[in-house]
């Protein structure tokens, strides 16, 4: 059945009265697009009312398990929305925030020692600058918030064996936009649980729940759009199978042996942030 032949869809679209008290013209236009796609899905799948209500009930259970965002992630919707939101080709792309940010972590020094001397794992230095995406010039004093799992893929707020705010830090870039972070290389991990609605769905679809090793960071500076992104490691075997499709080429960085520090690896990264008001 074509859109033109779908009498119910035409009635649903016509039911939105333009100019009615309290109506929102932008929302009406957006909801009209959603209606067309929902009706097209029903037509293509030939869903009955009973099947439709089972889907609605399933979504209710996903919401009750607090996994709606995970559902968006595993369907690739989150990364696609971030792609569509990108406005400047020169800016570092946004990436998924994830469930574990803590923006209120205490501010420390630059260089920042994210890992204690006792933290196990491959020692790593992350070194770079924050730049203006439009001019390429350094952005002095930008705030950088960093968080990551340990070498076993566990974040401190899901692991009682770690101290509070372990592997988290906040620092200000220097006068040249520079930052220096000493940490350990994080491990990958499996997201969610196998017995939840989304976990069962992924198993039935033949999907893995693997996340590639990564470091999260956020850059905040007045006059610039906040950037939330991630660092991935070139050559890691989990990059191609990352289950939320966030291992894009712009975020995969080469790691090499540190030329000055025995036992360390070095990762260099320049981050470009967008001014709030384009030129």
Automatic annotation (TrEMBL):
Domain (Intradiol ring-cleavage dioxygenases): residue spans on this chain: 103-254
Gene3D superfamilies: Aromatic compound dioxygenase
GO molecular function terms noted in the UniProt entry: ferric iron binding; oxidoreductase activity, acting on single donors with incorporation of molecular oxygen, incorporation of two atoms of oxygen
First-tier enzyme category under EC: oxidoreductase
Source organism, top-level taxon: Bacteria
EC number assigned by the record: 1.13.11.-
Family to which this protein belongs: Belongs to the intradiol ring-cleavage dioxygenase family.
Protein name in UniProt: Putative Intradiol ring-cleavage dioxygenase
């Amino acid at each position: 059945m074509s859109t033109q032949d779908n009498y119910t869809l035409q009635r649903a679209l016509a039911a939105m009265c333009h100019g009615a008290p309290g109506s929102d013209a932008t929302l009406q236009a957006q909801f009209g697009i959603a209606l067309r796609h929902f009706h097209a899905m029903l037509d293509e799948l030939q869903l009955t009312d009973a099947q439709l209500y089972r889907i609605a009930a399933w979504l209710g259970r996903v919401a009750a398990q607090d996994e709606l965002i995970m559902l968006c992630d595993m369907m690739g919707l989150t990364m696609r929305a971030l792609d569509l939101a990108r406005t400047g080709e020169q800016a570092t792309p946004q990436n998924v925030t994830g469930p574990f940010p803590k923006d209120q972590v205490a501010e420390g020094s630059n260089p920042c020692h994210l890992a204690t001397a006792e933290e196990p794992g491959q020692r790593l230095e992350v070194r770079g600058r924050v730049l203006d995406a439009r001019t390429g010039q350094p952005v002095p004093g930008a705030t950088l918030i960093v968080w990551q799992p340990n070498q076993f893929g566990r974040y401190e707020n899901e692991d009682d064996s770690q101290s509070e705010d372990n592997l988290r830090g906040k620092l200000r870039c220097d006068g040249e936009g520079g930052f220096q972070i000493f940490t350990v290389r994080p491990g990958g991990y499996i997201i969610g649980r196998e017995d939840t609605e989304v976990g069962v769905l992924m198993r039935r679809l033949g999907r893995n729940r693997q996340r590639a090793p990564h470091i999260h960071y956020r850059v905040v500076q007045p006059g610039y759009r906040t950037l939330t992104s991630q660092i991935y490691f070139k050559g890691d075997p989990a990059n191609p199978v990352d289950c939320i499709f966030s291992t894009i080429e712009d975020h995969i960085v080469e790691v090499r042996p540190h030329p000055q520090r025995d036992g360390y690896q070095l990762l260099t990264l320049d981050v470009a942030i967008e001014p709030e008001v384009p030129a």
